[in-house]
């Protein structure tokens, strides 16, 4: 059986016009980003792998074969090095394999750019006819959002995007006949339907072209500073719940880092929600949301400076939530968790000692929240694998109370973790699997950091549940 992994955000040398006054320094919005697709074989046998690339709104694939991949092995492909695509390519990709794969997409600015942060998002294994993007911005908080929607149906689809502002009327955008597996990009700053600014969320509906039958889509987004050098990426979602778990919560931690949650009402009626922070015991709310709207909750809403922990969002109806952490070089984005899993893959893990301060290599910090029952010491293990699927080392974690959070990184496994994921021949590849007892519920967020000019530029991605 062939498995397809859908990557809705593949951008090679994406160039976007910046509106407004000319910036006095390089800005994330307007910078050319190039994608690396980092993927891991989480199956039991060697995987045969190929990639299909689709230019924007084009249903004709560009097929590229990839080397076989051993079980648990991880590798990456730098899309900018693929001559079949050419400079300026913008579109989507599909990974095809006879084994289950997981993938994280890494967006990189040119080496000479002052922008060191690497926006991160995950691939998808399936789609839905209804997808939500919890936050979308135009000239708000100094940022613009670009949304990509990929048709993962076998037929062409028609799209309706409903942009729901914090106040005022919805903005509706429609697209017809998007070919199978192709992607359409929506750069809000360049869309005539919008005015000078926008702050809201997005509801995306898909039907098979020319009918009312449900289609299937996935979506991702990038949020880019208009004048600053921060950027982040995140996925749209079709997983809704009345309880959302957030593994990262902060209030001016180290006098710099604060979290914020964008919470969106997915129902057709008013709901209320509250945010409970742990271990502080502080609760923010209740807040009321009308249908489709969002509200942001700050980590300092009741918490004192220096707080670090996790949070649980509870609502009277279904919601989705996205977390952000900002300050001190951080500009991260990650989706909240509707539930946990006992086995979670992290396809993109790196660590460096020798090339940290020269900004050449990255470090991965892994946050693990227990959203199930209490777990004793030794119940949860983080296994670190090299590019060939060999187990390099393991980190056996201490006891994790229900709702609590613990951390890991490759340095804890000793000398083998000192330059984890980097090799003398210039190749890359390192991954990890977090594993708890059967029936346990874990939620994992990975922070990828680069040292830059005395700051640590960081972005997050969520761990991917596996069988």
**In the CATH hierarchy, what is the architecture of the largest domain at level 2?**
Sandwich
Please work out how many helical segments DSSP would assign. 0
CATH class of the largest domain: Mainly Beta
CATH topology group of the largest domain: Hypothetical Protein Tm1070, Chain: A
Mean pLDDT: 90
| Share in β-strands | over 45%
For the record, what is the CATH homologous superfamily label of the largest domain?
A: TM1070-like
User: How many discrete domains?
Assistant: 3
Q: What portion of residues is helical?
A: under 10%
Number of strands: 32
Low-confidence stretches: 9-25
Helical/strand content category: mainly beta
Radius of gyration: 21 Å
Main beta sheet? 7 strands, antiparallel
Characterize the structure shown.
This protein is an all-beta fold and about 475 residues long. The protein has three domains: about 230 residues, Hypothetical Protein Tm1070, Chain: A; about 100 residues, Sandwich (Hypothetical Protein Tm1070, Chain: A), CATH 2.60.290.11; about 120 residues, Hypothetical Protein Tm1070, Chain: A (Sandwich), CATH 2.60.290. The protein contains no helices and 32 strands. Strand 26 and strand 27 form a beta hairpin.
């Amino acid at each position: 059986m062939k498995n397809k992994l859908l990557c809705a955000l593949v951008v090679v040398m994406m160039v976007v016009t910046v509106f407004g006054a000319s910036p006095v320094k390089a800005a994330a919005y307007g910078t050319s980003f190039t994608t690396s697709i980092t993927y891991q074989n989480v199956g039991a046998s060697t995987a045969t792998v190929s990639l299909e690339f689709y230019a924007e709104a084009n249903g004709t694939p560009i097929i590229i074969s990839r080397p076989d991949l051993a079980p648990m092995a991880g590798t990456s492909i730098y899309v900018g090095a693929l001559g079949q695509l050419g400079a300026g390519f913008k579109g989507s990709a599909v990974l095809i394999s006879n084994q289950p794969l997981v993938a994280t997409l890494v967006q990189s600015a040119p080496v000479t750019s002052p922008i060191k942060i690497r926006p991160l998002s995950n691939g998808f294994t399936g789609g839905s006819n209804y997808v939500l993007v919890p936050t979308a911005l135009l000239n708000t908080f100094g940022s613009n959002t670009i949304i990509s929607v990929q048709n993962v149906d076998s037929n062409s689809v028609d799209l309706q995007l409903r942009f729901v502002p914090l106040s005022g009327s919805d903005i509706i955008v429609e697209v017809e006949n998007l070919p199978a597996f192709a992607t359409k990009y929506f750069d809000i700053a360049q869309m005539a339907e919008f005015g000078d600014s926008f702050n809201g969320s997005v509801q995306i509906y898909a039907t098979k072209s020319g009918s009312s039958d449900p289609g299937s889509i996935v979506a991702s987004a990038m949020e880019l500073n208009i004048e600053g050098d921060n950027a982040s990426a995140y996925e749209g979602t079709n997983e809704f719940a009345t309880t959302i778990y957030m593994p990262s919560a902060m209030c001016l931690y180290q006098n710099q880092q604060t979290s914020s949650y964008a919470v969106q009402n997915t129902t057709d009626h008013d709901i209320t929600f509250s945010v409970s922070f742990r271990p502080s015991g502080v609760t923010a709310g209740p807040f009321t949301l009308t249908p489709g709207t969002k509200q942001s909750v700050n980590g300092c809403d009741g918490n004192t400076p220096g707080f670090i922990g996790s949070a649980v969002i509870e609502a009277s109806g279904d919601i989705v939530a996205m977390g952000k952490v900002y300050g001190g070089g951080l500009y991260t984005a990650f989706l909240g968790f509707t539930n946990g899993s006992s086995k979670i893959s992290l396809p993109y893990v790196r660590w460096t000692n020798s090339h940290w301060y020269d900004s050449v290599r990255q470090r991965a910090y892994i946050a693990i929240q227990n959203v199930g029952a209490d777990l004793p010491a030794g119940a949860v293990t983080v296994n670190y694998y090299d590019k060939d699927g060999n187990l390099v080392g393991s980190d056996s974690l201490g006891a994790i109370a229900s709702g609590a959070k613990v951390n890991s990184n490759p340095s804890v496994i000793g000398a083998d973790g000192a330059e984890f994921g980097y090799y003398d021949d210039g190749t890359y590849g390192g991954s990890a699997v977090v594993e708890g007892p059967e029936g346990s519920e874990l939620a994992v967020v990975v922070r990828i950091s680069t040292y830059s000019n005395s700051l640590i530029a960081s972005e997050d991605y969520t761990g991917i549940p596996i069988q």
